[in-house]
Design goal:
Catalase HpII,  Chain A, domain 1; 3 domains; 10 strands; 10-stranded antiparallel β-sheet; 493 residues; oxidoreductase; binds protoporphyrin IX containing FE; 13 helices; metal-binding; alpha+beta
C-alpha cells in the first residue's frame, strides 16, 4: 500500500469529507461558506481548453531518437553530436479536420509531430504522413481547412469539399490522390510513414548549408484500411488508433521508424524544374537518395493525457542551431502561426508547462517575463540587458543571425506572388498513377474511394472533378465516372 494521499482544498487546507456539503436544515438552502463545493463546480466548468484548430484529435507517446549514422557533413545540430546519442522525445499523431472526440480512423491526412528535448533547446518536427501538401500558398490554408469541414449550416458539403480542390487549388491533385489512395486510411499510426514535406536548411560546423527533406519510414510495414473497413472502424471503435498505439507500447512492441534525409545543394535546387520551396512536389529519389541518420522509437505511454499530450505545444518555430526553416512561404507562415495558436490555446507562458519546457537546458531571456501563469520570472534579474550583468551569448553557431546566409534570390525586391498553375503541377500526379499501377488493386482503390465520396456531390461538380483528374491521366477521371454510375446502380437495386 502506498502512503495515503492527503486530500485538501486548493489552498492546501485538509478536507474531512469531500462529498458532504453544508445546508441549513435538511431541506434548507446551501451555505456559501462551503468553499470546497464552489471550487469543485468552478473547476469542472473550466476543465476544457480550446481544441487545436486544426489537428484536434490526437494520440501521443514518449520515446527517443537514436542517432546511428553519421551526417556531420550536412548538419551539426545537438541531436547529431555523437553517433549513438539518444535524445528523449514526445510524439503526437493526429487527424486534421475532425473535432475533438471524432473517430481517429476517418479518411484524412495524419499529423506526425515530434518534440526532441536537446541540450541546445527543444526541436520540433511538425510533420504529416504524406510527403506533399494540398496548397503551397499559406493564405489558402484557412479556406482549405474550412472546406473540409461542415458548411455554414453545419451540414456536410461535398461541393465545397471538391470545388476547393479542383477549382481554387488545382495544385492539390498530387496530395488528393495520396489522400484518396488507401494511404488516406492508415490502419494504425505505427503502420504509416512521416515526412517533413517542406524543405529545411541544415548547416554543418563549417557553415556549409544544404537543403534537406526528412523521411520517417515505419519499421512495421505500411498497412492500410480499405475505404469500407475504415468507415466500419469509425463506428465500431472510434479510438482504434489511440488504443493500438497504447497497447503496442504496453506490450513492448515498440513503434519505431527509420529516419533518413534527402539532401540537395543550393546549386542543384536552382536546376529543379519546380521550386524547391513548393510543398506540392516531391524530390526525385533517383537524384536525391535517402541517407539514413537514425531511429525514432516510442517506448513510454503518457500517464496523464491532458498534461502530457493535450497541453503539448508543437511548432516549426522551435528550431535549434544548425537547423533552419527554408524560404518555403508555407513554412515561414507556420513559424508565426503555431506560437500564436499556442498563446491563444494555452496562454502566453505555454512553454513553461512541464511537457513543453526545454528541460535539457534552461530557457532564459530577461525580456520574456510576467504575463498570466508565469512560473519562472528570473527572480530579481534586471528587466533589460544590463551591462552590470554577466550574460552568455552564442558566439559559435550565431544561429538566428545566420538565417538565409548564402541563399540566392532572383532579386531583392518585394514581389507579389501567387502560384501560377502550369503543366508541371500534373506531372507528379501522373507519375503517382503509374506507381499505384505497380501494386495490384491500388489504382482501382483510388477510383473506388474517390467515387464513393464524390457520388454525394452534384453531377456538375462530379464532371469538374473528373476533368481535373484527367489532367493526370484520362483513365482516372473516366474510371471515376464509370464507378459512380456503378455505385448508383447498385444502390438502387
Ligand atoms: C500555412 C500552412 C499551415 C498553417 C497556417 C497551419 C496551422 C496550424 C495550426 C494553427 C495548428 C494548431 C496548433 C496548436 O493549436 O497547437 C496546426 C497543427 C498541426 N499542423 Fe499545421 N498548418 C499549416 C500547414 C501544415 C503542414 C504543411 C503540415 C505538415 C507538413 C502541418 C502539420 C501540422 C500538425 C502535425 C499539427 C498538429 C500538431 C500537434 O500534434 O499538436 N501543418 N497547424
Amino acid at each position: 500500500m502506498t502512503a495515503p494521499k492527503k486530500v485538501t482544498t486548493d489552498n492546501g487546507a485538509p478536507i474531512s469529507d469531500p462529498e458532504t456539503i453544508q445546508r441549513i436544515g435538511s431541506d434548507g438552502p446551501l451555505v456559501l461558506h462551503d468553499t470546497n463545493l464552489i471550487e469543485t463546480l468552478a473547476h469542472f466548468n473550466r476543465e476544457f481548453i480550446p481544441p487545436r484548430n486544426p489537428h484536434a484529435v490526437g494520440s501521443g507517446a514518449f520515446g527517443e531518437f537514436i542517432y546511428d549514422t553519421d551526417i556531420s557533413d550536412v548538419c551539426s545540430a545537438a541531436l547529431f553530436s555523437e553517433v549513438g546519442l539518444r535524445t528523449p522525445c514526445l510524439t503526437r499523431f493526429s487527424t486534421v479536420a475532425g473535432d475533438r472526440g471524432s473517430a481517429d480512423t476517418v479518411r484524412d491526412v495524419c499529423g506526425f509531430s515530434t518534440k526532441f528535448y536537446t541540450k541546445e533547446g527543444n526541436l520540433d518536427w511538425v510533420f504529416n504522413n504524406t510527403p506533399v501538401f494540398f496548397v503551397n500558398n499559406p493564405i489558402k490554408f484557412p479556406q482549405f481547412i474550412h472546406t473540409q469541414r461542415p458548411n455554414s449550416k453545419n451540414l456536410p458539403d461535398f461541393e465545397q469539399f471538391w470545388l476547393f480542390f479542383c477549382e481554387n487549388a488545382q495544385e492539390s491533385l498530387h496530395q488528393v490522390m495520396v489522400l484518396f489512395s488507401n494511404r488516406g486510411t492508415p490502419y494504425s499510426y505505427k503502420n504509416m510513414n512521416g515526412y517533413s514535406g517542406h524543405t529545411y536548411v541544415w548547416t554543418n560546423s563549417k557553415g556549409e548549408k544544404h537543403y534537406v527533406q526528412v523521411h520517417l519510414k515505419t519499421d512495421h510495414g505500411i498497412k492500410n484500411f480499405t475505404n469500407e473497413e475504415a468507415v466500419k472502424t469509425c463506428g465500431e471503435n472510434p479510438l482504434h488508433r489511440q488504443i493500438d498505439l497504447h497497447d503496442s507500447i504496453a506490450s513492448k512492441n515498440y513503434p519505431s521508424w527509420t529516419v533518413s534525409v534527402q539532401v540537395m545543394s543550393f546549386e542543384e535546387a536552382s536546376k529543379l524544374p519546380f521550386s524547391v520551396f513548393d510543398i506540392t512536389k516531391v524530390w526525385p529519389h533517383d537524384k536525391f537518395p535517402l541517407r539514413r541518420i537514425g531511429k525514432l522509437v516510442l517506448n513510454e505511454n503518457p500517464t496523464n493525457y491532458f498534461a502530457q499530450v493535450e497541453q503539448a505545444a508543437f511548432s516549426p518555430a522551435n528550431m535549434i542551431p544548425y537547423m533552419e526553416a527554408s524560404n518555403d512561404p508555407m513554412l515561414v507562415a507556420r513559424l508565426l502561426s503555431y506560437p500564436d495558436a499556442h498563446r491563444a490555446r494555452l496562454g502566453k507562458n505555454y512553454s513553461q508547462i512541464p511537457v513543453n519546457c526545454p528541460y535539457k537546458t534552461r530557457a532564459y531571456n530577461p525580456l520574456h517575463r510576467d504575463g498570466k501563469m508565469q512560473m519562472d520570472n528570473f527572480g530579481s534579474d534586471p528587466r533589460y540587458f544590463s551591462t552590470l550583468e554577466n550574460y552568455e551569448f552564442d558566439t559559435k553557431t550565431q544561429f538566428l543571425k545566420n538565417l538565409n546566409k548564402g541563399a540566392k534570390f532572383n532579386n531583392n525586391q518585394i514581389v507579389e506572388w501567387k502560384h501560377e498553375l502550369s503543366d508541371i503541377d500534373f506531372v507528379q500526379p501522373a507519375q503517382l498513377w503509374k506507381v499505384l499501377g505497380k501494386t495490384p488493386g491500388e489504382q482501382k482503390a483510388l477510383i473506388h474511394n474517390v467515387a464513393s465520396h464524390l457520388q454525394n456531390a452534384s453531377p456538375t461538380t462530379q464532371d469538374k472533378v473528373c476533368k481535373w483528374f484527367n489532367k493526370a491521366n484520362v483513365e482516372i477521371g473516366t474510371g471515376i465516372k464509370l464507378e459512380i454510375a456503378k455505385l448508383q446502380r447498385s444502390s438502387k437495386l
